[in-house]
Amino acid sequence: MARPAKAEINLDALRHNYRLACKVAPDSQAVAIVKANAYGHGAVAAAQALQAEAPVFGVACIEEAMELREAGIQQPILLLEGMFSAEELAVARQQGFWVAVGHRQQIEMITQAASGQALKVWLKLDTGMHRLGVQPGAAVELYRLLAESDNVADGIVLMSHLACGDEIERPQTPKQIQCFADTLAAISAVADELGQRVETSLANSAGTMAWQDCRRSWNRPGYMLYGGNPFGHSQENADQLQPVMNLRTAVIALRDIAIGECVGYGASWCAQRPSKIATIAMGYADGYPRVVKPGTPVLIHGQRASIVGRVSMDMITIDVTDLADVQLGDEVLMWGEGLSVDEIADCAGTIGYELLARMPARVPRVYLGK
């Protein structure tokens, strides 16, 4: 009998969330972001589930793109970090990948290459995040280099990325929107001169759900596809998302302990009353964060129970004193429906993106709704 730890992946929920991204921005197209193994959910399975609906998939690098191609995904695949060598450029052209470029060297790699298959290029603009992207003052010149090259297809996409899109009250996003608009106006004048068109992309998940002015030709929903709420609070569109991953395990041991007895490594938790402790097959080797604070919840019989003692590599101990009739083999939900990954991430002092993306291969994925 297999160890009970597993990640159930609800592909119907994934499709629901993608459709929500399209519904809230009906005048845009949505690139389905499946980088980092589809945020830990399985990139191939996620892309296969969405291939009838998503016109383009987004990944970080060429290795991720090739995994999808080799699995039979035929849609364009956007390399969000672009290519890192002439060899990768050749592969991108051969495979029909789309490439994001964020500095002159990447642009010249394309424009100075031998004539061949024209690439769909996304020109990344640094509007204030200061991580990747060309500077606004250089954007027009670099756009012209691309637009005048036979190696670049018409319809260059001007893109940028939001630094604080999930924090609605902060002023950074309106400033980024304005910088993007000003640069787009200058680039559009050059495009008109050359008889070309410019497409645009600014919205990530937060931008797609909460910022109307960020919804452009192409949106790039990622975290929201997997049911995660980037805002940390209720939000009209985020509240309609469905969790895609249910991380489940089961009770593998039960014991009664007396007042003063301690549980787990370092004896960090000691019973203040006669207590019933359940041990479950889950630990930090299964992607569950060791650093969760005492009292972090799990669900057993649909009721909350608290983690006590330290999370160890393969096991966690739960105080089930107040739950009736807990038995060996009872299912335990670590996060998913009824207990969001964002709540668990908050208990660990991190974000749900990290918990999902770090889900290790040791945890089997069980796909529902194929």
Automatic annotation (TrEMBL):
Cofactor dependence: pyridoxal 5'-phosphate
Active site: K35, Y265
CDD domains for this protein: PLPDE_III_AR_proteobact (cd06827)
EC number: 5.1.1.1
Keyword Isomerase (UniProt): yes
Residue stretches making up the Alanine racemase C-terminal domain: 244-368
InterPro entries found in the cross-reference section: Ala_racemase, Ala_racemase/Decarboxylase_C, Ala_racemase_C, Ala_racemase_N, Ala_racemase_pyridoxalP-BS, PLP-binding_barrel
Entry superkingdom: Bacteria
GO biological process, one term: D-alanine biosynthetic process
Catalytic activity: L-alanine = D-alanine
Family: Belongs to the alanine racemase family.
This protein's name: Alanine racemase
Organism the protein comes from: Dasania phycosphaerae
